[in-house]
Specification:
Elements lengths: L15 E4 L5 E8 L2 E6 L5 E5 L3 E3 L2 H6 L9
Antiparallel strand pairs: 1-2, 1-5, 2-3, 3-4
């Protein structure tokens, strides 16, 4: 998976993710173990979530926010 850290602990900083429990969309800010700090794209608030609670935002979700498709390296 391209947005995983090299150690498989979760998404790298800057990944646009969706919290599967709340539906909130945010950008990962950092990770400690498998716990991510995420910044909301709606209001800038921060929350923490286990990596299993997060998923990468879809192309459709990105388009609704006016963000282009993610690049894959």
């Amino acid at each position: 998976m391209t947005n995983m850290t090299p150690w498989g602990t979760g998404y790298r900083s800057g990944a646009l993710v969706v919290d599967k429990e709340t539906g909130a969309v945010g950008v990962t800010q950092g990770v400690a173990g498998r716990i991510h700090t995420v910044k909301s794209v709606q209001d800038g608030s921060l929350w923490t979530a286990h990596s299993t609670r997060l998923r990468i935002a879809t192309t459709e979700e990105r388009a609704k926010l006016g963000i282009g498709p993610r690049s894959v390296h």
